[in-house]
Amino acid sequence: MDGTVRGWDRSYLIGKARAKACELDAAAVASYFPLERVISGVGALVDRVFGVKLTEVAMEPGENWHAKVRKLRVTSGDRGAGEGQEIGTIYLDLEPRPRKFPHAAHFVIRCSRGVGPDKQRPAVALVCNFGAGSAATLSHSEVETFLHEFGHAMHSVLSDTQYQHLSGTRCAMDMVEVPSHLFEYFAWDPAVLGLLARHRVTGDPMPREMIARLRASKELFGATDLQQQCMFALTDLEVHALDPATLTEGSVSDVAARVQAAHSLMRVEPGTSWELRFGHLVGYASTYYSYPYAKCVAADLWGKFFREDPLAPGAGEALREGMLRHGGAREPGAILRDMLGDGALITEHVGAAPDPTSMLADLNRGR
């Protein structure tokens, strides 16, 4: 051992460094996130923020694809007219099993379509791989993942468009990851953790000191995490700019190694081919830039509407009416300018890019 940090050491060492610097015990943190509490807490969150209620209901015969899948009916809350009106359905497929899709994802089953009494109500599935059984607990990272996917679900379920091909996440890729990244912020907010976190045995809320240490851990290696996201996005763009007529067996690996060498602190490890484990390279097909793009927009939205009081109903209404309900039926630039002002986009070069100021301020907040 010569003390050199290798590519495969990155995640392990970052986790160890965060735990040591912030005095965090991952098992102790997870004990405050029983799966059932997290699900009910998310229900309380969307009720407070968006005025919608989640109710677990029984499946119709033949409706589910596995006995462990759960069904949540989404209905209007008690704010004004339409109380109790069904809005849509969210299926939860959260436990691991053999041959199941191994990652976390949001899948649209049925899109929203039409307006008025004949509207087609949307249905989506959130597929994750958390612990099995009623005693399962989540790591804080898994809580953040669940909220990320729930942001996608709210985008789909709260969409209100005439045409299904413009519903919810069927929008411009520049916007599709914004609600999910905004929802990640809820995982770190003390007020929201008051809804999500209760000790699995005692029922006590998460101590304020633990919350403070958890939030401090987020600020460590934030720039390193962002650098990795940018490296993924650049690799995705360059791979999809290759000329198919000149592709060779090693073309994609050559691009990945070249981008990593230029844009990462981690050395290239010959023969490890990290790009083969980068599933978004196929699924997103040159649009992975939407992840760092969304981080910028989400930081702006959080700062303007949620930072002071993330559970304020007005904040959720602004997001629902200004962004979520439009799906892909409104031009993204118009949505962002209406919600964030004319400075939300930088147009000095070709196209438009979000202002990174708020996102970079979040990186520096703990320094």
Topology:
Blueprint: H1 10-22, H2 26-30, H3 35-50, E1 52-57, E2 70-76, E3 86-93, E4 105-110, E5 123-127, H4 140-157, H5 173-176, H6 178-186, H7 190-196, H8 208-219, H9 222-239, H10 251-263, H11 280-283, H12 290-306, H13 313-322, H14 332-340, E6 345-346, E7 353-354, H15 357-364
Parallel strand pairs: 3-5
Antiparallel strand pairs: 1-2, 2-3, 4-5, 6-7
Helix pairs in contact: 1-8, 3-13, 4-6, 6-12, 9-10, 12-15
Structure description:
The chain has 367 residues and is an alpha+beta fold. The chain has a domain at 27-211: Collagenase (Catalytic Domain) (3-Layer(aba) Sandwich), CATH 3.40.390.10. The protein is 44% helix and 10% strand. It contains 15 helices and seven strands. It has helices spanning 10-22, 26-30, 35-50, 140-157, 173-176, 178-186, 190-196, 208-219, 222-239, 251-263, 280-283, 290-306, 313-322, 332-340, 357-364; strands spanning 52-57, 70-76, 86-93, 105-110, 123-127, 345-346, 353-354. Strands 1-2-3-5-4 form a five-stranded mixed beta sheet. A two-stranded antiparallel ribbon has the order 6-7. A hairpin with a 6-residue loop joins β6 (345-346) and β7 (353-354). The longest helix is centred in the middle third of the chain and has 18 residues, at 140-157. It is globular and about 60 Å long. The model has no long low-confidence stretch (mean pLDDT 91). Residues 4-342 form the Peptidase M3A/M3B catalytic domain. Its main location: mitochondrion. Pfam families: Peptidase_M3.
